[in-house]
Amino acid sequence: MSRNRDGYSARQDKSQALRRPCGDVSALARRDGAAPHPVSGMASSVALWAAEGHAAEHPSIRPDTPSPQGLDTGGATFPPSPGKAAGNVIGRWRLKHRVAQLLRAQAGPGGDTPGVCKCGSAGHEVQHVGLVRRNGARPGATGVYFCDSPWLCPSCAPRRAAERTERLERVFAAAEAKGWSLVFVTLTAAHRRGDRLADLKALVSGASRSARQGRAWMATAREHGIQGVIVGPEVTHGRHGWHFHQHLAVIVSTSRLADAEAAGQAVLGRYMAAISEAGGRALKQGQDVTVVWRKEDLQGYLAKGSAAWEIAAAGTGKEGRGGSRSPWDLVADADAGDRQAAELFREYAAAMPGTRSCVVTKSIADKLGIEPEEDEEAPGEEPPAQEEAEELGGVPRAQWHRLLRHGHVPAVFSVIASGGDWRAISAEIRRLDPGEAEPQRSGPVPWAISALCLAQEARALRGSMAGGSLDAAIGIAVERHRQDAKRVGRPLLLPHLPTVARLLAEGFA
Ligand SMILES: [Zn+2]
Q1: Distance 460 CA to ligand 1 centre (A)
Q2: How far is the CA of 260 from the centre of ligand 1 (A)?
Q3: How far is the CA of 96 from the centre of ligand 1 (A)?
Q4: Which terminus of the chain has fewer Cβ atoms in its 10 Å neighbourhood, N or C?
């Protein structure tokens, strides 16, 4: 069971990429196409998570972040290449607008709406929302609020799901280092059309909780070496109504396959007993033990919760999933006039938000020697520029909010994705929102350095260096400014570097 650890060394990188806010979560694009979790029709299953080198090629955490060599474009424009990444960003904003419409209609005028209805609106005191093009194609907005909702927001959910996956990877790495195993168990209950989601959720979650409580559980855990359990809920809607289930990652202090399986079975057995005690029914068939060895299978388990829902294909692929619809499918169907789907989505929106997933408790963290991790929503404001981006221009706050409210942002983004310049973009904005004056071109104030200033810094740096040329010192000084500018989200405006070198050579600095 030797496993490749290389994948873990890239973790830090990944978290940085993943912390990107709302408009930029297309990093999970490929995950959108992943096969849905094969739980439909199965009451429960157990799987041992022990794939070889599974993390080395994680499901597309950052397929479309700019490559380092893409950073120094000197303001040059990129050739237009609107691809899947751009399409995903646009699709998410479209879906987000539909979600907001559905939930606003439910709340009524002046009613309380969840954060997703404000996701993408201008941040506090932001007068102009910036429009950017990342990696030559991917449209984005800067200075906007992101809601961080893992259940309701098509823009934020993929990022949240990726964070959960990362958490599990850390757990897996730590367990592996101890020679322990992770066993996956899926818990659900028999359900019928018409069952309320809130009731099913309470039934499954309640039985799952009580299966892991009390003296008998402590004895079971001791007997099997169960060190802790991490829970990830998921929900879909199918022919038989709501299908609520929990994925359990059971941490077992054994490296023996049979022992790990027995631990998973013990958890399952206690759950089955708890669910019948609660008056529910967990189907007997389908409770087989599935050992997952292949990385592809593993990813099915990793794609928990909202990560397993296809956003790009929402509303288009029901047949392929045996009639099973994700909440995004419900939104898309509602948008196409399916009133029942609209009702179902609202029921979902009332039941799921606030449900935590993949929490690493202090007890588990202590045993594994890692940090505990909660699953709190942390809404915030997107920093102006977290990565190199082509700044295109700014849209006044009020106008941006009109575009957002009327669902026009995807149309504006499409122009950005197809490589349009600011003239084309503002023409589209005028077309969509003709009542207003032309949007102003305005970006953040550049981080500008004078030639003399840079020369003086380079001189001082070289004095503190053990050796090295003035050119190298200039390079270091430039790099520092680059970092600083990036940190505060301002574009870097460098002086003419040959002038800096001349100032140094001629002793002016
Ligand atoms: Zn959001």
Answers
A1: 46
A2: 38
A3: 8
A4: N
Tell how strand 226-238 and strand 241-252 pair up.
antiparallel
- For residue 9, the one-letter residue type is S
C-alpha 430 – ligand 1 centre gap (Å) = 26
CA of 244 to the centre of ligand 1 (A): 23
Q: How far apart are CA 8 and CA 53, in angstroms?
A: 10
Phi, psi of 364 (to 5 degrees): -65, -45
pLDDT at residue 322, as a whole number: 62
Q: How far is the CA of 238 from the centre of ligand 1 (A)?
A: 26
In order, the DSSP letters of 458-486 are HHHHHHHSSS--HHHHHHHHHHHHHHHHH
Q: Find out whether 415 and 424 touch, Cβ atoms under 8 Å.
A: yes
pLDDT 10s digits, 483-494 = 877 776 777 778
3-class secondary-structure state, position 420: coil
Query: 156: CA distance to ligand 1 center in Å?
Result: 4
Residue matched to tokens 């429960």:
44
Distance 225 CA to ligand 1 centre (A): 40
Q: Residues 6 or more apart from 228 whose CB is under 8 A from it? A: 250, 251, 361, 363, 364, 367
Distance from the alpha carbon of residue 105 to the mean position of ligand 1, in angstroms: 18
Cα 11 to ligand 1 centre (Å): 24
Please indicate whether residue 241 or residue 167 has the higher confidence score (pLDDT): 241
For 505, residues 6+ apart whose C-beta sits below 8 A from its C-beta are 470
Name the residue with tokens 């950073």. Answer: 71
The model's pTM is: 0.68
- Ligand 1 centroid to Cα of residue 149, in Å, is 6
Read off the pLDDT of each residue in 196-220 and give the average, rounded to a whole number.
Answer: 95
CB atoms within 10 A of CB 83: 17
Q: pLDDT per residue over 54-110, tens digit each? A: 222 222 223 333 333 332 333 333 333 457 778 888 989 999 999 999 998 877 777
Give the chain's end-to-end CA distance (angstroms, integer): 62
Instruction: Look up residue 343 and give its amino acid.
Output: E
Q: Does residue 224 contact residue 262 with C-beta atoms inside 8 Å?
A: yes
Contacts of 213 (CB under 8 A, 6+ apart): none
Nearest residue to 292 (alpha-carbon basis) of 52, 473, 124, 8: 52
